[in-house]
Amino acid sequence: MAKQTKYIFVTGGVVSSLGKGISASSIGLLLKSRGLSVVNIKCDPYINVDPGTMNPFQHGEVYVTDDGSETDLDLGHYERFLNSILTKEHNLTTGQVYNTVITRERRGDYLGATVQVIPHITEEIKNRIKHFEKSENPPDVTIVEIGGTVGDIESLPFLEAIRQMGLEEGRNNVMYIHVTLVPYIRTAGELKTKPTQHSVKELRGIGIQPDMLLCRSAKSIDDDMRKKISLFCSVPMKAVITAEDVSTIYGVPLNLHAQDTDKIVCEHFGWDLPEPDIAEWEKMVETIINPQKHIKIGICGKYVNLKDAYKSIIESFVHAGVTSIAEVDLIWVSSEDIKKHGAEKFLHDVDGLLIPGGFGERGVEGKIEAIRFVRENNIPFLGICLGMQCAVIEYARNVCGLEDAHSFEFYRDLKHPVIHLMADQEGVTDLGGTMRLGAYPCKIEKGTKSEEAYGCNSVSERHRHRYELNNTYREMLADNGLTMAGVSPDERLVEIVEVKDHPWFVGVQYHPELKSRPTNPHPLFRDFVKASVAYKENKTANSQESEANVSK
Ligand code: GLN
């Protein structure tokens, strides 16, 4: 008999941003560590087909998968926590669901029926959720996170679909986990359970009785309060879990495990499994909590006030810090401020600089100034995508003497378009899903910093761009000391540039941050952090030496 895939549905209540994604990832990690095969899916109730065209200010980072899908940032958490490779099938949106149903209706597939939310939309949602169950290797468990908050109009079809699945799959094959908030009211000096009660009432109104509550709270929730929540919400007390704020998100699985969360899930599904093997994870968390060194790395971008726009980069620094036993303090600098006040004011005491990816001309001149500052002062640098393109512009202008070098993305009648449109992007007018997206191979030059980091000469990395280094300028840049350290296998696209006479200056056309994992940091981030630690130690040693000389 074919294996029955079990389903865990993670919903959220009271407010958004409770960390449903982290909760779903943590439960996934714990179950995987018990030897189960786990798949994570995110349902996004918005009408956009994917988040690719959304402003990162509103939506946060667009997470690109190997297969070139532009997905929700929660998929980044899933990949990082479960060390998995996800695809477009792991992120479904209302836009995709309606697209499919409407296309079918136009084809006449519904044979004259009135096409409705129930059953047609809900059927399509269930089909997509059950996609992996129908594969050759069905997972033991599929964890489905429903975006948004219970009570939102747009979430309703998804909640109805998962309600139906409880009925169709059998209640002991489906588990509902509700993530909710237990706020601390400072004036009363008390935690309050009422919002949780209301949220569960709302969920029950839709016909879903949660099996477990993950209660997010700034303080620990005592047994009396858990008992009260249990009683009002009809959830067994042992399944009322406190998800207290923690200093690192990677501590969440350990916190959940300490409260038997994974054991309760196993009991629900009738699984008798060994304890999870999480020793390596525990060691990693221990190192994050107790770093021995501290470095400052400047990040200069357009959206410095919205950290979610750089989620994977922030996490990559946490992972890289583990190898160096260092805490990376990120100094967020607006590129427009650098343009106004100069780079030194903001970057004089950083041990490294990262320029992330981006679109649009705003802030580009500030980024170019920041790059010049770190290049001339031998401060380690990592440029990602637009960051790499800015590094090329800076080098062309200030080292090769091409004063008006710029990117074709911003100006069309340039004398020196050192960054120009990729040949296969010419004539593309649609914005959604039309960039160079996803995994492409890259050949690494011998004797480069990149080769040293990767320890090999052929890698695969994820991309999301339309523009590239203009091959007309390759030779000139190289003659002036900018190494083409990585190229596509046919050598037509430059993937990595490095400044030869610099302690560590690397620019990459792809997004290394998407492949960094907590227990396996990305080699470039790892070496960038190492170089920044070395830079700081050098600087400290030099200043101690000059102090000693003065006092002699
Ligand atoms: N805007 C640039 C391009 O399209 C860089 C993109 C990015 O940084 N992700 O090529």
Instruction: List segments where confidence is low: pLDDT < 50 over at least 5 consecutive residues.
Output: none
The bound ligands are: glutamine
Largest beta-sheet details = 9 strands, mixed
> For the record, what CATH class of the largest domain applies?
Alpha Beta
Write down the overall mean pLDDT: 93
Name the beta content range.
15-25%
Number of helices: 19
Structural class: alpha/beta
Which homologous superfamily in CATH is the superfamily of the largest domain? P-loop containing nucleotide triphosphate hydrolases
Strand order of the largest sheet: 13-12-14-15-23-22-21-18-19
What is the CATH-assigned architecture of the largest domain?
A: 3-Layer(aba) Sandwich
State the domain count: 2
What distance separates the N and C termini? 84 Å
What is the third-level CATH name, the topology of the largest domain? Rossmann fold
Oligomer: single chain
Question: What does this 3D model show about the protein?
Answer:
The strands form five sheets. The protein has a nine-stranded mixed sheet, with helices on both faces. Strands 5-2-6-1-7-10-11 form a seven-stranded parallel sheet, sandwiched between helices. β14, α15 (364-376) and β15 form a beta-alpha-beta unit. It is of the alpha/beta class and 552 residues long. It starts with 5 loop residues before the first strand and ends with a helix. It is built from 19 helices and 23 strands. The protein folds into two domains: 7-283, 3-Layer(aba) Sandwich (Rossmann fold), CATH 3.40.50; 293-538, Class I glutamine amidotransferase (GATase) domain (Rossmann fold, 3-Layer(aba) Sandwich). It is globular. Glutamine (GLN) binds at residues 357-359, 385-386, 409, 464-467.
